[in-house]
């Protein structure tokens, strides 16, 4: 089957989902990013939860001197949403066509993951090719090299692809925190977005998106947003076919890298010299515009370390 006849649907879901901020969730995410101890207490807003915490600590130490009180005040100050400078990231050495999934309110700056926070991910291995883990590792390495973002492998999950909006919090599965990025080997029967595996002229090999949430307790129209988690859905039967009879290992790795690039914020471009062309025609590495875009996505805003 001609590689050029294959496509994917990487951005059909992304913009719609990531532009659907949920205020309560967003504030809770801000708490996770800023102060995990508060996030575990409640889903209340930062301001509401920060002050009672300070009061409780102060009240518990009525006999202690002013030094302790000052320390408490400092802790509360850290909870205020202040922004660190842009992280080091990976400097772009090439330039070319690239596009972003979502732009911030300024209309220029792409929404990205916090480059100062590792991105946890889990993999559902059901039906994966034998080389599945290695393919994902190598494709992730391509993203890391191009962005400077860091990922943390949290092992296997049994979470299925989301057919509707993925729950950001899945307490039974992942505990009291935002769910990690899900990489899931699936098929057209389970994930209709992948289409039928009928060998037709256009096969969808995968798709990916990330959910953007408010980065702070500011939920105004111009509030800063950040990706909190996301999902990469890979068509296991199609990609197995590519490994066995189609374009081969490097091509499949390129498909996964393409989807991971969607995950971190890149959109499609028409230029056939870029891996973010929806057809992924013969390329096995990122092109000059891909690398420029990925560099930008790896140099987003940092939030205060927890
Ligand atoms: Zn795509």
Description of the structure:
This protein is an alpha/beta fold and 306 residues long. It is 34% helix and 14% strand. It has helices at residues 14-18, 23-34, 36-39, 46-59, 66-78, 132-147, 171-174, 236-244, 249-264, 288-297, and strands at 99-100, 119-124, 151-156, 181-186, 206-214, 225-235, 266-267. Strands 3-2-4-6-5 form a five-stranded mixed sheet. A two-stranded antiparallel sheet has the order 1-7. Mean pLDDT is 76; it is low at 1-85. Bound molecules: zinc ion (ZN). Zinc ion binds next to helix 9.
The overall pLDDT, averaged over residues, is: 76
Cα shape: globular
Characterize the largest beta sheet: strand count, sense, and whether it forms a barrel: 5 strands, mixed
Number of strands: 7
Spatial gap, N to C terminus: 49 Å
Total domain units: 2
Order of helices and strands: HHHHHEEHEHEEEHHEH
CATH C-level category of the largest domain: Alpha Beta
- β-strand percent reads 5-15%
Measured on Cα atoms, how large is the radius of gyration? 21 Å
Structural class: alpha/beta
Second-tier CATH architecture of the largest domain: 3-Layer(aba) Sandwich
Helix content: 25-40%
Biggest sheet strand order reads 3-2-4-6-5
What is the overall number of helices? 10
Query: Which stretches are low in confidence, meaning pLDDT under 50 for 5 or more residues running?
Result: 1-85
CATH superfamily of the largest domain: Collagenase (Catalytic Domain)
CATH fold title of the largest domain? Collagenase (Catalytic Domain)
